[in-house]
Structure formats: C-alpha cells, structure tokens
Amino acid sequence: MLIYEQDAPLKTWIQFREQYLDETLCLEGRGTPRKSPTCPGCHLKTACYRCRDCYGGSLVCLECTVTRHRRLPLHIVEKWNGSHFHTVPLRQLGLRIQLGHPVGEGCPFKKPGPRDFVVIHLNGLHNIGINFCECPGQAAPFAQVLRAGWWPATPLEPQTCATMETLRLFQVVNLQGKISAFDFYRALEKATDGWDLTKLPDRLAAWTLMIREWRHVKGAKRAGRGHDPSGIAGTRKGELATLCCACPLPNINLPEDWSRAPPSKAYLYRLILGHDANFRLANRMRSTEQADPSLCPGGAYFVDTGPYAAFLKNYTHDKEISNCVAFAALMLANLKRTKGIASSGVGGVSCGRHELFCPNGLGDLQKGERCVIIRSVLFTVLMVLPPGMQSCTIPPPLHSCYWRWTSSLYSKWPIVFLDLSP
After folding, report:
1. CA angle at 359 for the pair 305 and 287, rounded to the nearest 5°
2. Could you give the CA distance from residue 320 to residue 59 in angstroms, rounded to a whole number?
3. Cβ distance 234 to 353 under 8 Å?
4. Domain CxC2-like cysteine cluster KDZ transposase-associated, which positions (predicted)?
5. Does a structural domain hold residue 109?
6. What is the per-residue pLDDT across 68-80, written as a single tens digit (0 to 9) for each?
C-alpha cells in the first residue's frame, strides 16, 4: 500500500526509487523496444546513433545524425557498439561548420580552420571541424566566430573560443557561488571525460583570457560605449562603474530645488562617504603592466594606476605620526610586511549609507592604511562624480581614525587636487 505524505516528500519517494533506478538504467541502453532497427528519419539505414543533448534520445543513422546537428554542432553524440554506447565526436562523423554563410549553405572560397579548433561549451570541450569564409568583402575570421555566438581567445588566427552561454553562466556562478575560473574549467574537463581516458587539449590560459575580454566588453556595452562615436577608447574615468541608485543623484532622483532645501531637510540630499581598508587583499609581484596591461585604467572602480603611482612617489618616505598613545592601529599598519608584494591591501571609498563602492573609489595600499593614500582615493572620487554631486557631498569619511584623518585633510586638499588632476 502506497503512503503519501506531503510534509515528508522523501518518505513518498522511497516507495518509487526502484522504478527510478529501472528507468535510469533504461536510458543507458537503447531505450524503448522498436519493431524495426531502421532509422526513423530516412527509413533506409540502421539506427545506431543517438544524441545525449537532443530531446527524446531516439536512435538514428549516421547521415541523419549529421544533418540534424548542422545547427547543433556542440551536442554530444553516442554510438551503439552492440553492448553499450560510447561517445563519438561529430567531427569524426564528417560534420564541418561553415562560418560566414547561413547554415547548410556552402562557400566557394572556404578555408579549413585549425585541426585543433576547440570550443568550450556548457557540456564540455569540443574539438570540431570548422571552415572559414574567404569570399570577397567577408569579415575577418575572428569576426566570423563572434557572429556565430562564440568568443575567440585571440583575433589573430583563432583556434580556441567559448560560447556566450558558457561565459554568462560562469559570470553568475562566479559572483553567486564564488567559483573560480580554474575550478569551473576543471569541472568542464570532468564533464567531457570524467575518467581521463582521452587527453584533452589544455585551454585554461585561453579560458581565463576570454573571461577578462568578455567582462571588459560587457562592461563597455552596458555603459553605452558602443553607441558613442569615441567607442571604448573614449571612456571617461569611472564611467563603467555603477552608481548607487539610492544615493542623491542630481538630475536623476532629486527635485529641481534640492539645493534650496531648508537646513532641517538638507540632510536628505547629502552624499555621505566612508572609507576602509582590507589588508588581506595583498597582491604579489607576479607580472608587469607591459605583460598584463589594464584594459581600461580608471574606467570603473579602481583608480588609474599611472597618476596614482606617480602621486604616491612624492610621499614614499612620509611617516604617519600618531599623537594618541592608546591607539596603535596606525603604527601596526606601517609594520606590515611589504617585501615581494605589489600592494599590501586595498583601500576603498563607498557611500556611507549603502556601502556601494564609488567610481574610482578603490586603490592599492603600500605599507599600511596611510592617510595620503586614502586622501588621494577620496579626491579622485570627488573628481569623477557626475556633475552636481560634488556640491551635495560630505568629504570627511567615517572611520575609526577620523580624528587623525581630518587633522590634515583640508591642509592637503589643494596639493592633492593639483597632483591628481589630468
């Protein structure tokens, strides 16, 4: 007798687990018995191929398999060998993808792509056969790959790319689940061959490169740079950053007469800034700006490294002197080990109410949380704020070192602005 308990779904499921097991084992075989072994598509040849990603998983012949997957080249196809199914690449079955033309249309000037052309997709790594189009007036090979919905790792003779769906999924799981690019790629390798029976191409370096490129272009797209005649090169400082929609933004969420508000209501239209530092985000000296350049210096949340570093060189030997014998945070920050690291942490300026980082509100620390670093980051934020926001900003940040910080704030104000101005 079956017992159904709505509040205990597993107790109900236990009574059906044997049937679940039987149906799962059925999927490992040829499925539902059929009267004829011929292909249901052409009714001519023997059906011994099935697709693991297509709905239904019905058996078809070789020719029908290739025909059906001209629009689905990244599906996983299996062949029945008499006792079990084994994976067969579509390239081995004769499928080649022609870029630059509609699906099914040939190219009189086709050029075979690299033999080791690899596409990284949601279901694993695929070594596919590909043909580029060299018709007169046709786009470059990397543009043909982009128009197919794939992201090439390089614009020069691409041989590795990732689908847009894969890049979007990684973006979500990276932000929500904190999955690194390394772990995500290794998971795709296991999805391709969990037993390590075949040697898979190593595309980890290309994968991390594509992630950086894709995120940079997506940020520029969301900021409207694709509709600006100056393009990405004309991006202003902090333009790629997202402003806090709950903070006062003139001409956006403030009334027209906000600047004439009475003193009892003026606090409603003030932008309160706060700052803090994270000493766990130390960066080791592993590369250089020449080998690993910034794609958009100062375009989003971090300050432009060039002017920022040049400004700090003038204060390399300045020591932060504290007059409070009971407060040792400043002294301990200066005692941090800095040998072999490019920065000892990150200092940031955010809105004091909602803790959203400001445009150009992050900067690398050198030898602790020095006041000169926090001042320079704050003034950079004030310079890149949208027009009108400077007049409703409360400059002194909220911090435990407030009394030390404000003692030299206004005395350094004109000097810092002069050094950091473009």
Report:
1. 30
2. 75
3. no
4. 90-194
5. yes
6. 999 999 999 999 9
Residue 54 lies in a domain: yes
Range of the domain at 118: 96-222
Task: Please indicate, yes or no, whether residues 402 and 384 belong to a single structural domain of this protein.
Answer: yes
Residues 6+ apart with CB under 8 A from 8: none
> According to the per-residue pLDDT averaged within each range, which of 183-187, 252-256, 288-292, 401-405 is highest?
183-187
Q: If DSSP codes are grouped into helix, strand and coil, which group holds residue 206? A: helix
Q: Are residues 86 and 100 in the same domain?
A: no
Are residue 277 and residue 385 in the same domain, yes or no?
Answer: yes
| DSSP calls for 336-377 | S--TTEEESEEEEEEETTT-PEEEEEEEEESSS--HHHHHHH
SS3 287: coil
Q: What are the pLDDT digits (tens) for 99-158?
A: 999 988 889 999 999 999 999 999 999 999 999 999 999 999 999 999 999 999 999 999
Is 251 part of a structural domain of the chain?
Answer: no
Segment among 3-17, 23-37, 230-244, 333-347 with least mean pLDDT: 333-347
Element (H, E) at 151: strand 150-152
In whole angstroms, what is the distance from residue 422 CA to residue 419 CA?
A: 8
What distance in Å separates the CA atoms of residue 286 and residue 5, rounded to the nearest whole number? 59
In-domain check, residue 245: no
Is residue 416 within 8 Å of 315, Cβ to Cβ?
A: no
- Give the chain's radius of gyration (CA, Å): 30
264 plus 152 within the same structural domain:
no
* Domain limit, last residue, from 44, 65, 94: 94
Cα 152 to Cα 48, 226, 382, distances in angstroms: 34, 19, 38
Secondary structure (3-state) at 70: coil
* Same domain assignment for residues 143 and 277: no
In the structure encoding, which two tokens stand for residue 139, read together?
Answer: 């786009």
Could you identify the residue written with the tokens 């910034």?
294
Domain shared by 62 and 115, yes or no: no
Least confident of 80-94, 306-320, 382-396: 382-396
Please give the tally of structural domains in the chain: 3
Is residue 111 domain-shared with residue 81, that is, in the same domain? no
- 45 and 104 co-located in one domain: no
Instruction: Say if CB 394 and CB 277 are below 8 A apart.
Output: no
